[in-house]
Design brief:
356 residues; alpha/beta; Rossmann fold; Helicase, Ruva Protein, domain 3; Arc Repressor Mutant, subunit A; 3 domains; six-stranded parallel β-sheet; two-stranded antiparallel ribbon; 12 strands; globular; binds adenosine-5'-diphosphate
């Protein structure tokens, strides 16, 4: 399978007061900037751990399209960053025995970018568009007939002499990925035959992912060590791999560490201020602000974004999903509320809480 990467890589990671965040699920490691060079990325079904429901759905469709010798139906994958959407697209291409072309919506800003991409597609090729909710209106309109009828409608000429030219495209598969499915226009959403959410990973799956990565990195990691990283990686494989690399650095520098066990993980992640629940300073600042300045909430997203100096979309797609998942935050029509579990975890005085 060949991987062709076009345009920019994933959107830049987000910075907190100029510092790059260790727990940012969007951030790509320097060594994984070129996605095809990511040594830890699973290459086939068996290596893709967890997300069993998604794997089951897709493996049936792959088998069916292979037996009918057709292109796989278009697939939309959504969910928080770092959960394996790009990886799944690459695995799909491998299973289908086709080339995978990778791009992202911000790289398709000009109409000629998407036209060029579509005109260069080969039969049954897999096209992966990351952050598909950010496609321009023009790009989306060019995609509608391409996805439905494998046809490109181009307008040639201007004014009264303008004509539409139809160009037939080979049958191909679009895999779209998004962290924000609600932002996708419904005509585009409707053109995907398979739509699936990727969920945060269970501890057992994360432990397997971490053990596999440790083996690939040549690191001896105890079961308790891998469980500890699993607990702190916010259910996200990209963060798990990053924490593992930081633990490996620590173990390399400290002498006489044969096997990395829980105490080594504890010590090294303490240095990075990642706590037992996988919260870092960004989370603590976010929660503390709601508790201290707004009596635990409710407080609106825009107010939070302005006060913390972050973009509301960053808070919504990067910070909040995990806090919601572990029950530290609630979203209500009147705004965000911090729960008593978070207050307890942060050691705040429970009496600060007002009824919500
Ligand atoms: P997304 O596209 O959802 O942001 P990626 O597919 O880029 O996430 O995954 C981030 C990294 O996490 C990958 O490089 C890979 O090493 C690891 N990873 C993701 N999903 C899995 C999985 N199911 N099993 C093992 N590793 C995974």
């Amino acid at each position: 399978m060949a991987i062709v990467s076009s345009g920019s890589q994933k959107s830049s990671s987000y910075n907190l007061n100029g510092k790059t965040r260790l727990l940012d699920p969007k951030r790509l490691e320097a060594e994984t900037k070129k996605r095809k060079d990511d040594s830890l990325r699973p290459q086939c079904w068996n290596e893709f751990i967890g997300q069993s429901e998604l794997k089951e759905v897709l493996s049936i469709s792959v088998k069916a399209s292979l037996s009918r010798q057709e292109a796989l139906d278009h697939v939309l994958l959504y969910g928080p960053p770092g959960l394996g959407k790009t990886t799944m697209a690459l695995v799909l291409a491998k299973e289908l025995g086709v080339e995978c072309r990778i791009t992202s919506a911000p790289a398709l800003e000009r109409p000629r970018d998407i036209i060029g991409l579509l005109l260069n597609l080969k039969p049954h090729q897999l096209l992966f568009i990351d952050e598909i909710h950010r496609l321009t209106k023009v790009a989306q309109e060019l995609l509608y007939p391409a996805l439905e009828d494998f046809r490109l409608d181009l307008t040639v000429g201007k004014g009264t002499t303008a004509r539409t030219r139809e160009i037939a495209l080979p049958r191909f598969t679009l895999v779209g990925a998004t962290t924000s499915p609600a932002s996708i226009s419904s005509p585009l959403r409707d053109r995907f035959g398979i739509t699936h959410r990727l969920n945060f990973y269970h501890l057992e799956d994360l432990e397997k992912i971490i053990q596999r990565a440790a083996d690939l990195l040549g690191l001896s990691l105890s079961a308790a060590g891998s469980l500890e990283i699993a607990r702190r990686c916010r259910g996200t494989p990209r963060i798990a791999n990053r924490l593992l690399r930081r633990v490996r650095d620590f173990a390399t520098v400290k002498e006489n560490i044969q096997t990395v066990d829980k105490s080594v993980v504890d010590e090294s992640l303490k240095l990075h201020r990642v706590d037992e629940c996988g919260l870092d300073q960004t989370d603590r600042r976010f929660l503390s602000f709601i508790i201290e300045a707004h009596d635990c909430g409710p407080v609106g997203l825009e107010t939070l974004a302005a006060a913390l100096g972050e973009e509301s979309s960053t808070l919504e797609t990067v910070v909040e999903p995990f806090l919601l998942q572990i029950g530290f935050l609630k979203r209500t029509p009147r705004g965000r509320i911090v729960t008593s579990a978070a207050i307890e975890h942060l050691n705040f005085d429970e009496s600060m809480r007002v009824s919500s």
